[in-house]
Input
Amino acid sequence: NEIKIFSPATVANVSCGFDVLGFCLDTIGDEIVVRKSKEKGFRITRIEGFELPLNPLENVAGVAALALLNDINLDFGFEMEIYKKIKPGSGIGSSSASASGSVFAINELLGRPYTRHQLTHFAMKGEALASGIEHADNIAPALFGGFTLVKSNAPIQVLELPSPKALYATLIHPEIEIKTSDSRAVLPKQIPLQLAITQWANVGSLVHALHTNDYQLLSSALQDVVIEPYRKGLIPHFDSIKKQSVLAGALGCGISGSGPSIFALSEGLATAKSVEKSMRDVYSKSGIPFNTYVSKINSKGIKIL
Ligand code: HSE
Output
């Protein structure tokens, strides 16, 4: 009647795949406890870590849970405790960790009536509260694990992509907040055909590289000619971080989701750690507080604790 889960942070976009690609991290995530209650309906009884609303209608985990519960007829309800470890607005899928963890946990307690695709649909309702639009590029990797590609939103279709074994992510999270809605507002409504051609060649190449364990191809595909030029100005020292990461051996480096976190991918843990050091060196001089993380690609997604 009670379940505790770990709901992981995720990196959306992965440079070239704006709004479609994402991958799941291992070392950072929220913990959520859900229990059945005799009282019908849904309540959030406790949130630790960050100040967020307990009212389910104002909380991404609550909106996602209610989307699921409105779909099913039950004569009991649920209570939730959220232990937030991922800072909201950090660019590593804080809202989607809450939204996907919420519906995953309820589904487990109900005996899994819903598929992961259906859970993605419910979780997107919560995500929309945070970012203003329904998108699944953070939710899909949290629920499915590994790398994912959101083929379509309506109907929701998620493709699970393989992760090369030696691939590690390094992240730096500068302690400034960028709202997804603000970093979407700086984007152009239209893009030149030539840039679109480069971008979709890179998306296709990245998917191929994941399937064939081709680190060199992966490296050349980890580029974003469409979104990054508009967003990088919102993130202090982005160009230096990128340059130093690649010098330290990273396959590529880009904005994590809508920022301000920056991610790099590397072949092997030792390189990922050198990349972390190079990122810390850049930010240490800046006076801006920051955190860094090194993580394996989490192939399982949400875990039951
Ligand atoms: N794909 C989204 C964006 C992810 O880049 O705006 C942020 O939630």
Observations:
- The longest helix spans residues 193-212.
- Residues 12-13, 18-19, 131, 135, 137-138, 180, 184, 257-258 surround L-homoserine (CB under 6 Å).
- The longest strand covers residues 21-37.
- The chain is about 35% helix and 25% strand.
